[in-house]
Amino acid sequence: MKPVALTFDDGPSRWTPLVLDLLREHEARATFFVIGARVRERPDDVRRIVAEGHELGSHTLTHPRLTEISDDEVRAEITGGLEAIEEVLAERPTLFRAPGFYAERRELAIVEELGLEAVFAHVDPQDWRPERDSHTIFRLVLDELREGVIVDLHDGYPPRPTSSRTDCTPTVEALDHLLPCLQPEGYEAVTVSQLGTPAAP
Ligand SMILES: [Zn+2]
């Protein structure tokens, strides 16, 4: 089987249980990059993500654009995100994804200094755009799928001022169509760690 890694950012949210239901139904594994502030609102979703065999990564505490804040603020955002997860799971993740993939040399050095591995993505259907419908998301992912890719999807939306859609239903619907296509095409959905080397920036 050809491994691929589905990843979900900006949760947990009210769409996370729907994503988890679909993943369970299709015996697929995924990786969730959660926002610390959301973790505190929905700790049960975080516990369920891990209990059902998925991987958890951090996506900062409040989802700022890291390239626009100071070193100390970058550290506080990353550490705060890890602590929010630790409060729920009593352990810290080792994977990290920068909001909007905004991470350059300085930010990546801090990520590494904090013992984290930065994860990017190869397939980016931009499902967070308000105009993206489920069929477009489904086609964009399926057309670019190949062995070893990391796919970026969203099971929630960030706090202001980041602009994003406020309804993640199109991603849930796209997933409902995508997951049954994987096995017949020879793909297996695994976690980022199971995939091996994360995508380079
Ligand atoms: Zn995000």
Describe the overall structure.
The chain has 201 residues and is α/β, with parallel strands linked by helices. 41% of the residues lie in helices and 14% in strands. The strands form two sheets. Strands 1, 2, 3, 6 and 7 form a five-stranded parallel β-sheet that branches. The chain has a two-stranded parallel ribbon with strand order 4-5. It contains eight helices and seven strands; from the N terminus they run βαβααβαβαβαβαβα. α5 (105-113) links the parallel β4 and β5 (117-118). The chain has a single domain, classed as TIM Barrel (Alpha-Beta Barrel). Bound molecules: zinc ion. Zinc ion is lined by residues 9-10, 59, 63, 99, 158.
Q: Which structural traits does this protein have?
A:
8 helices; 7 strands; TIM Barrel; single chain; 41% helix; 201 residues; binds zinc ion; alpha/beta; 5-stranded parallel sheet
Uncertain stretches of 5 or more adjacent residues: none
Bound molecules: zinc ion
CATH topology: TIM Barrel
Tell me how many strands there are: 7
